[in-house]
Amino acid sequence: MSPFACPNFQHAVSRRHALKVGGLGLLGLNFPQILNAEAYGTNEKLKARAKSVIFLFQWGGPSHIDMFDMKPDAPEGIRGPHKPIASKADGIQVSEHLPKTAKIMDKVTLIRSMHHTMKNHNSAGYYALTGHAPPSDDQRLRDSLDLFPGYASIVNKLAPLKGDMPTSVSYPYVISDGSVTPGQQASFLGKDNDPLTVLEDPNSPSFSLPELSLPVDIPFERMQARRELQQLIDQQAKLMDISPQARGFDGYYDRAIGMLQSPKLRNAFNLSAEPEKVREAYGRSTYGQSCLLARRLVEAGTKFVTVYFAPSIGGQSTTEGGWDTHGFNNTRMFPIIEKFHLPITEQTLPTLLIDLEERGLLDSTLVVWMGEFGRTPNINKNVSRDHWPMCYTTLLAGGGVKRGFVYGASDKTGSYPAENPVRPDDLAATIYAALGIDPHTELRSAAGRPVLAADGKPVMGIFA
């Protein structure tokens, strides 16, 4: 049996190595150090390749077959209705509906061998947002202190910024599928490590941050006095000891008050300062302006920005929603893909990468474009593709990754990885490694158990 044929192969290796820890501990090595040596072949401090990450999460499951891993020689029911076109990167083809995107493929790395086994949106979404497999593949998965924090919160914990800019920002939605998808907040790291979450529409003419504005009749000094009184009450009530869920609210509140005075933060969110030509280039849509805001935030120093493509997985609309194509019973395939998903991707992704490069920010900013899984290679009787986590594609750009490069490969129908399989655990480790964060840093769970920031190994082969 090949290593890939056993889904738990890499976990099994880690367990075997764990048996050695007791003996090696006598030599002064602990488990994270051992894993670090295995991952990088050295005990030297990890090199930071990126200062910031822009994480563009495509909720609903974009199809690799219809975009970045097309199979024109496969049978008709697999290759789909779209034709491939050549891109600016040798050997990389994309959908005919992405001609602008084709021109920036020389700036990106495609990982075509992503895989896991979670077929439900909430469980797969949690896996994609944290890099940790959920306890079960269950659509009813709910957020709890037993589950892991998202990337933004771990970055906030392990590499916080000093000054008045937030380390991590998430917007413009809290995503869900029936219930809120876990992995968007800090979980057992405490509320003070939650990303700054903004639920305003950046495309709205009245876009602002009211939660960062003081009421007109309350000066900052009075607000600070109120805060001091609240601290006294909290201390007396010992709220942090009584409620684990409340742990961290104190620090979160302090941070929010500090942001009230920050001209730098207010300026970063001031999209009206952008030339009209730039705003139009990104597209006058919520997602388009969210991508523009992401550029402004990393330019101002924010370390991790999460942009959610849509609040829900999608439905039968052709003008809004995530990448799920269930429910379309049409003879013409995937109308939402052709009318909404591909056009908005075609406008935003090339614009963002070109804008970052022209401003000298691409080399220091890792852009990650991905969903929670892909879609089945075969088209079902309802003229759709079903959830398919066994093989899908993630796109990365900037932050030291190779340009015009493909890592891994799928088989001839795009069903399974054919070489260099990559799990979400490995992608998580790769993101942390790009920021210079040791992915095997030890954290403490809600129960006090030692856990690693990421269980996987960085995919070092994608870095230049």
Automatic annotation (TrEMBL):
Domain of life: Bacteria
InterPro entries: Alkaline_phosphatase_core_sf (IPR017850), DUF1501 (IPR010869)
Annotated coiled-coil segments of the chain: none
Name listed for the protein in its UniProt record: DUF1501 domain-containing protein
Species of the source: Chthoniobacter flavus Ellin428
